[in-house]
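pinned: reference chain
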Amino acid sequence: MEVKNSVKPVDYADSMKILEKRVDDVISGKKGEFLWVLEHKTVYTAGTSYNSKDIINKKIKVIKTRRGGKVTLHSKGQKVVYFVINLNKRKRDIRKLISNIELCIINILKAYHIESHADKKRIGIWVEDKNSTKKIAAIGLRIRRWVAYHGFSINVSNDLTMYKDIIPCGISDRGVTSLKKIGVRRFDKINDIIINKFLDIFH
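pinned: its structure tokens
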């Protein structure tokens, strides 16, 4: 699996072009699987099942995407993990794929002594924070010819107040949090941890 690690923020539209091209190359057999860890400048994106009611501030610009899921936010301090995984060479099992992605995120957070869990009714990864359940990681996928792509994001040190303009992932009864918000002070090696935990599962 090719691994790319971007230090500077990547434009969202540019990243989508690169990702879609890689999917084409995997389908045609020109290239292999791909993992890409990056950050985006502030951008609100809407997945294929979004509802306009989830956009509270109608003045913000929202980019419609091909991934599954609803409305989310990417911004500085949030790690975005894109991948292209060829399920033709693995098991053609989307449930198993999602379970493995959830396990990967849980293992990343464990490296910071954070206990987290998946929720069958609400996609993403959740933590208990001050007697309430809050979302710390979002997942969005698309499958084309059994090639899975897009990925997940983990809130590390991003500005959580920016979520007030949307209902994140269409879930109004639970808040969002980040590693920084729940007390983690050092995350300078998080890219390495993300890559290692991902490759542990998708080797």
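why pinned: The radius of gyration is 16 Å. The domain at 2-201 is CATH 3.30.930.10 (BirA Bifunctional Protein; domain 2).
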